[in-house]
Specification:
- The chain has helices at 17-27, 54-70, 85-91, 137-149, 171-178, 191-203, 234-240, 264-273; strands spanning 4-13, 30-37, 40-48, 77-84, 99-101, 105-109, 121-125, 161-165, 183-188, 211-215, 227-231, 253-260, 276-284, 287-294.
- It is α/β, with parallel strands linked by helices.
- It has 2 domains: 4-92, ACT domain (Alpha-Beta Plaits, 2-Layer Sandwich), CATH 3.30.70; 113-294, Rossmann fold (3-Layer(aba) Sandwich), CATH 3.40.50.150.
- The strands form 3 sheets. Strands 10-9-8-11-12-14-13 form a 7-stranded mixed β-sheet, with helices on both faces. The chain has a 4-stranded antiparallel β-sheet with strand order 2-3-1-4.
- A hairpin with a 3-residue loop joins strand 5 (99-101) and strand 6.
- Helix 7 (234-240) packs parallel to helix 8 (264-273).
- The protein starts with a strand and ends in a 6-residue tail after the last strand.
- 40% of the residues are buried.
- Bound molecules: S-adenosylmethionine (SAM).
- S-adenosylmethionine is lined by residues 130-132, 139, 142, 165-168, 171-172, 187-190, 193, 217, 231-232, 236, 240, 258.
- This is Ribosomal protein L11 methyltransferase.
- Belongs to the methyltransferase superfamily. PrmA family.
- It comes from Parathermosynechococcus lividus PCC 6715.
- Its EC number is 2.1.1.-.
Length: 300
Amino acid sequence: MIQRWWEISVTCQAAAEEVVYWRLQCFGCEGVATQQQQGRILIQGYVPQQQITLLDIAALGVWIEQDVVAQGYLPPKLQWQLVNEQDWAHSWQAYWHPLPVGDRLLICPAWEDPAIDEQRFLLKLDPGMAFGTGTHATTQLCLEALEMQLDDTFAPLPPTVIADIGCGSGILSIAALLLGATKVYAVDVSDLAVIATQRGAALNHISPEQLVVAQGSWEQVPEPVDGIVCNILASVIMELVPQWTPLLKPKMWGIFSGILLEQADQVAAVLEQQGWSLGSVWRRQEWCCLNARFEPNAYR
Ligand SMILES: C[S@@+](CC[C@H](N)C(=O)[O-])C[C@H]1O[C@@H](n2cnc3c(N)ncnc32)[C@H](O)[C@@H]1O
């Protein structure tokens, strides 16, 4: 049977991306993705047809407008239509091509065969509806930060176990393993992300022992880790960080992304309260990524 989805499209100012994105995710949208459009952005999310009614979409429109206007941005434009899964899950693929990120990675659609580049690890992906093709600034910042954390130029890497919270397509988990991590726990609340990450592991010849994928959040990570990467939204990061005690080891590193520039101070304050020392803040477009180390006794 063909599955049909509501495609909900919101056009708004770039600065309103986080509020709209958050509202779409709370509403239950899958595959939320953003495109630049002549000075504004188009954010699209998808919900199975049977899960919601037109009245729900109308209510969503009111919430989004209230959220956006309350932050001082121009009112957004909301549109919706029913689409077949096949049509939208693959329509964007024509515009996605191999993309070098940082110094050591080449992100590549599963269906393309790029020329071999000996300097870069080839990371093949077929994300379907899950977030994470490597084209978004927040993902790129994490990939570059992973490259820094897993750099073995001057000394061999010690065994490194990582947690990828909000793995989406699995892009960060797979990159971490290609760059030398020993094991990654990848978790995401979305079942589509879990499927996409498992598909990504197979495409890159990564075993289920190296990349352990589970649906849910940080609670699914069964042991303390040496590094954590979390590209979700600032509001979610600030909620999750204080809960992570079972995952922490002194001196472990953390990469926090999905944060708008103006939210960096707020997230940094929460991290510091929880024993993290902020190392560097990397910026791209309106986004930033915080690199931190867990040093619970540094200020006490
Ligand atoms: C912006 S995407 C990041 C995907 C990928 N890691 C990347 O960097 O491209 C955020 C992901 O976090 C997931 N997510 C949202 N809230 C979460 C939570 N509390 N715990 C785990 N995953 C969550 C979403 O389903 C989504 O797949």
